[in-house]
Design a protein that fits this description.
Layout (H helix, E strand, L loop, with lengths): L7 H9 L4 E3 L8 E5 L2 E4 L14 E4 L2 E5 L5 E3 L4 H5 L3 E3 L1
Antiparallel strand pairs: 1-7, 2-5, 3-4, 5-6
Length: 91
């Protein structure tokens, strides 16, 4: 289902249901956001080895990532414009 007008509140529910989303107003082709589940891993390499001992358990919290127009992935934080926009849609 493709919505042309979804609020961020609606988009957040869709993210929690593992949909990938984009904004109609974003000008970068292929840009989208998605939810990354939390996970647990054991420290085995820098830079965390400089903070924790090897084998230390790290609980990584769920977060939202963005696939940028160049295909790379980075953590994403919503801007004021993103939060107030009503042009969210499924990607």
């Amino acid at each position: 289902m493709k919505f042309e007008k979804m609020t961020f509140s609606e988009a957040l529910i869709a993210l929690k249901n593992y949909s990938t989303l984009r904004r109609k107003g974003w000008n970068g082709k292929g840009m989208r956001i998605f939810l990354v589940d939390g996970s647990t891993f054991l420290v085995n390499r820098p830079p965390l080895l400089g903070i924790f001992e090897e084998g230390h358990r790290v609980d990584y919290n769920a977060h939202i990532d963005m696939q940028k127009a160049d295909g790379t992935i980075e953590p994403w934080i919503a801007s004021q414009g993103d939060l107030l926009a009503d042009d969210w849609m499924y990607s």
